[in-house]
Amino acid sequence: MQSTKVSTPAKMRAADIAYDAIESMIVTLKLKPGAPIVESELIEITGLGRTPLREALMRMSSNGLIVQLPRRGLIVKDIEAAEHVTLIETRRVIEKLIASSAARRATPQLRQDILSCGEKMVEAANHGKLDDFMAADQALDHVVHEACRNPSAVAAVIPLIIKCRRFWYAYQHEGDMHEAARCHMLLAQGIANGNEEAAASGADNLMDYLESYTRKVING
Questions:
Q1: What string of DSSP letters covers 18-87?
Q2: Cα separations (Å) of 179 from 29, 122, 175, 187?
Q3: DSSP helix/strand/coil, 101
Q4: Other CB atoms closer than 10 Å to residue 109's CB: what's the count?
Q5: Under 8 Å CB-to-CB from 74, ≥6 apart: which residues?
Q6: What does each of the 220 residues of the chain score in pLDDT, given as a tens digit?
Q7: Inter-CA distances, 180 with 134, 144, 163, 176, 204, Å
Q8: Whole-model pTM?
């Protein structure tokens, strides 16, 4: 496994850097479901110390990304497609709240940034660039979360988003990047226009797509 060392802002805590690096490996399936968590390997890959790494792993355990098994230690949690339907059911409620709050509270600069992220998702989908699509998707989440100014809602939805993102990587052959980009763009436009109803509807449409996609995976 190649190193994921990157330059990061000095103000970021080492544990946050470790969390982001390991989360990326789990989401993109570089650390596959069922894979053991080997601290020494992660220290070498990330270039970070044991203390921040362990703090990051504790957060991942609480978020359900990794699990502790008897005699096996920490492993990456399996992807359970059937469980994913109820995850989206929960995410739908929170995403609608976040979207409407962002439409109401976003600054002009954040509205512009949100629209730009949506446009980048559409462009990536048009060129079939999955990595660019997922990067723009993650950037959109970050700016929408900043705009909504509801930290408790953001804290609740982040573990769900991470699991959805990993699900997409695992079953991308069943997905439709163009439709996903269209749904994200509707959400972005509703927030950018300050239209709470349109923003909430955009979030609803996105969850409809994710649910339909999940059921397609389950039904084979």
A1: HHHHHHHHHHTTSS-TT-B--HHHHHHHH---HHHHHHHHHHHHHHTSEEEETTTEEEEPPP-HHHHHHH
A2: 23, 9, 9, 13
A3: helix
A4: 10
A5: 36, 37, 57, 61, 66, 67, 68
A6: 444 444 444 456 899 889 888 988 999 999 999 999 999 999 998 899 999 999 999 999 988 899 998 888 999 999 988 889 999 999 999 999 999 999 999 999 999 999 999 999 999 999 999 889 999 999 999 999 999 999 999 999 999 999 999 999 999 888 899 999 999 999 999 999 999 999 999 999 999 999 999 999 999 7
A7: 11, 17, 16, 6, 12
A8: 0.86
| C-alpha closest to that of 37 among 57, 17, 20, 56 | 57
* Dist. CA 92–CA 130, nearest whole Å: 24
